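Team,

Forwarding the record for the chain on the shared tracking sheet. I've put the sequence and predicted structure together so nobody has to dig through attachments.
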Amino acid sequence: MAYENADRQGRLHVDVLATRTLALAFAPDTSGMKGEGLLAVTWAQGARGSVQLPAAGYAGDADGYVIRRWDDFGLGPATDLGAAHDTILDLRPLPGGGAVYSAEDPGWGRLAPDGTVAVRPQPPMADLRPTPAQGLAVSPAGTVVSFLAATGRLRFDPTAGSLTAQDAPDPSLVSTHVPVGLTAWPDSSAPQLNGVPLALEHEEFSRSATTLPDGGVLLGTDTHLRVYGHDGRLRTELPVPATAWAVAATLDGRVAVAGLLDGTIRWYGLTADTIE
């Protein structure tokens, strides 16, 4: 029996237990792995009757998330396989050998019986995670947007019903602008504005931000759009259905645009104390 152990120090551990007694039989080598933890592990039939032990979750590096695969029931050497752009949530064995896995890319991938990645997840939607600061822009009226996706820069005009590729940013659009006073905010659960901690829920992480005309901040997180005043006080909030990887606002602060992990771009109305 193999399971991921999130309680051990470092959170990157797999324990193999004896079936009859549930005593620890051994722990495969996870040295060198980086990340917040492992979410999934399974046995997988390999080539010529061998058995492999793949595990994955939040483990990865700057190039993406990996599956660590051990040969010989987990006793053999380990190989890290670049497998996804986002968290790998589950691993399941396939009857013919190998395994299938799900990732928050979103999409499904497959390990071949020889232990290689046969298919990586292919998201059926725009991937807005490459959108950094300055990547999302909105027209003064709040209608036209420009954004970076995995395929490059795109310009979307819903009034004209057009989606076109761009070689360079459109200077007529207002880009995301992160205020100088906003610190410790990228991928963080403890952002600060002018030294004042910004209130977030437990294990909520900020992912995007832009300044507002009154000196406040619009913050996009895993679960919410949040508006803070220049004093760091939370003025209003709105749940979102997926992580807000990019946000922008018009110069008058009346319209906000967010690019979400589900591949959608959404428009929101802003007032002094509401977002809707």
